[in-house]
Design brief:
By secondary structure, the protein is an all-alpha fold. 64% of the residues lie in helices and 0% in strands. It starts with 19 loop residues before the first helix and ends with a helix.
Length: 75
């Protein structure tokens, strides 16, 4: 690990970078986990807030995944 201050470290190391395909794969996995969690929730009022939060997260994950795929198609 580098002893340089955080502000001087490069973001361009092999360990820090993902390809768009790798990032998309991770998003797809996270989407599947979120969908599974949503499927486990019941219809009770106590779970309504969690359903709403997970629904919002799921929409954001799908949008991010779609955006990555769109950039790949344009290349």
């Amino acid at each position: 690990m580098s002893r340089r201050p955080e502000s001087e470290r490069s973001d361009w190391t092999d360990l820090d970078l993902l390809t768009r395909e790798e990032a998309h794969g991770r998003l797809v996995a996270e989407i599947a986990e979120t969908e599974a969690r949503l499927a486990q929730l019941g219809e009770s009022a106590s779970e309504a807030a969690e359903r709403e939060l997970l629904g919002t997260r799921l929409r954001a994950l799908r949008e991010a995944a779609d955006d990555l795929i769109d950039h790949v198609k344009e290349s």
